[in-house]
Amino acid sequence: MAFYVTTPIYYVNAAPHLGHAYTTIAADVLARHMRQRGEDVFFLTGTDEHGEPVAQAAEKQGVTPKELADRNAARFEALMPQLDVTNDFFIRTSDPRHVAHVQEILQRVHDNGHVYKGSYEGWYCTRCADFKTDNEIGPDNTCLIHEGFPLERESEENWFFALSRFQEPLERLYTERPDFVLPAVRFNEARSFIAQGLDDVSLSRAHLRWGVEVPWDPQHVFYVWFDALLNYVTALKFARDGADLTTTFWPATYHLIGKDILKFHCVYWPALLMAADLEVPRRLFVHGYLLSEGRKMSKSLGNVLDPFDAMDKFGTDALRFYCMRDVSFGQDGSVSPADFETRYETELANELGNLASRTLAMLVRYRDGTVPEADPDPALAGDFDGLAERVAALLDDVQVTAALEEIWQRVRRLNRYVEERAPWQLAKDEEKAGELDVTLRSLAEGLRVVAVLLHPYVPATTTKLLGALGSPDLDLERARYGAAAGGAAVAQLDALFPKTPAP
Predict the structure, then answer these.
(1) Domain pair 2-305 / 324-478, same fold
(2) Domain spans of the chain?
(3) Is 299 among the catalytic positions?
(4) Nearest-angstrom CA–CA distance, 286 and 403
């Protein structure tokens, strides 16, 4: 079965920050998990490079928009391997192949009769690259998303997309598919926006040159959002050496987006696809904001946390874990360096790291580095029964934080089991050699299952751990307590998460 997951494409008017890492890591967790299930996966991310914000930022820096896009796109692309992200393609909207397919699809929308020319006047946010409706305007004509940033009154001749024609088809879509947008609060938000009545929207800009040229009117370029949204389709046309992957992977299984771009993805996007005679995506998942000092983390607000600093000090897996653990994915939540360090020490170092170190050390010390061939303790079987299925079901609904909690409960259960069984005491009594075999076998098996399920979250750590346990298989079918035989050779490891991280 095919699984296609996308992040939003990231704007290149400034360098990446933790918010970009957050969405990308979540998408990678899903992609890795689905590969473990044997799915045919395509994972797309990239950069959004056209539009007024990029042109304005380039002008302030004394460079061309293309120079700024090249510089910052390289930073975003470099972030992916640093995050240990397994994206299949990185799209740039300045790519001529993307441009050509945008023109082809929007020409089809035009030819289908969903485009007309007219004049528009309204309040415009240069940071959002968006004309605002009345309920999206704050006090004194400011942007609600960018917290007080002044809007500009703009009037110009544009080509329009006849969004209002899709009022009824969108209402029908939301009625027939109550899981089209997740979580439910975002579904209701999108449906409410539609219910208020849809107005036609600008499809082109006349005064801007940095964009995709409108093929039927070269004096205009396409409004950046329509250019950007189409990346999810255009990438499939050329991502693998020119092969067309559309029939395999479209419609997308999941678009992951932040709530600030809900309107474009949950309303404009399905309408545009309908206008182009394309299927709408299966689902969209809308996550909340990472908050720093009580406010949305944003380049323009100057309150971002640097993912590079966190990775340099604590390691990439620690950042991946924290992003998926500390804030329930889908909701708003606060992040801070202090919370990061607490999670690192209490959960990664003390709970998982210590469990792995103790288990491997005892296998080496008491059983010459071999997992005993005794049957695993049935006392633990109930704790692991159905775990892989529950994790898979949660990840099917993009409940990445809840799935991680399910796994982490077993990390804590294994730590309690160590204390309950006290293998260091059993080792002192030769008559209890059988009990020690069962205990060590059970710890090794429970730790193996946990590591397989944790792999999408902390891939480098679990790869090392499974190698040390002599059981590197990542197949999710093997993530069942008792699925691996005893007798594997194990090796001790250095601390997976050192208590004193890099300075």
Answers:
(1) no
(2) 2-305, 324-478
(3) yes
(4) 17
CB–CB of 59/283 below 8 Å? Answer: no
Q: Which of 17, 220, 237, 455 is catalytic?
A: 17
| Options 132, 146, 220, 259, the catalytic residue | 146
**379 alpha carbon, distance to own chain's centre:** 36
Rg of the chain on CA atoms, in Å: 26
Q: Which residue type sits at 232?
A: Y
Question: Is 125 part of the annotated catalytic residue set?
Answer: yes
For residue range 165-205, list pLDDT tens digits in order.
999 999 999 999 999 999 999 999 999 999 999 999 999 98
Please pick, among 50, 101, 132, 143, the residue that the annotation labels catalytic: 143
Token pair of 463 as six digits: 């790869």
- Catalytic site includes residue 265: no
CATH T-level assignment (fold) for domain 2-305: Rossmann fold (3.40.50)
CATH topology of domain 324-478: Isoleucyl-tRNA Synthetase; Domain 1 (1.10.730)
Q: Angle at which helices 96-111 and 231-238 pack, to 10 degrees?
A: 120
**Cβ-Cβ contacts under 8 Å for 60 (sequence gap 6 or more):** none
Distances (CA, A) of 45 to 5, 7, 11: 9, 5, 12
Q: Which of 50, 259, 296, 464 is catalytic?
A: 296
Active site residue 455: no
388's CB contacts (< 8 A; 6+ apart) are 449, 453, 476, 479, 480
Is 26 within 8 Å of 5 (Cβ atoms)? Answer: no
pLDDT tens per residue, range 238-290:
999 879 999 999 999 999 999 999 999 999 999 999 999 999 999 999 999 88
User: Active-site residue 266, yes or no?
Assistant: no
According to DSSP, the residues that pair with 3 across neighbouring strands are 41
CB 303, CB 329: distance < 8 Å: no
Query: How many residues does this entry show for the chain?
Result: 503
Which of 125, 132, 220, 323 is an active site residue?
125
Report the C-alpha gap between 159 and 242 in whole angstroms. Answer: 31
Active site residue 323: no
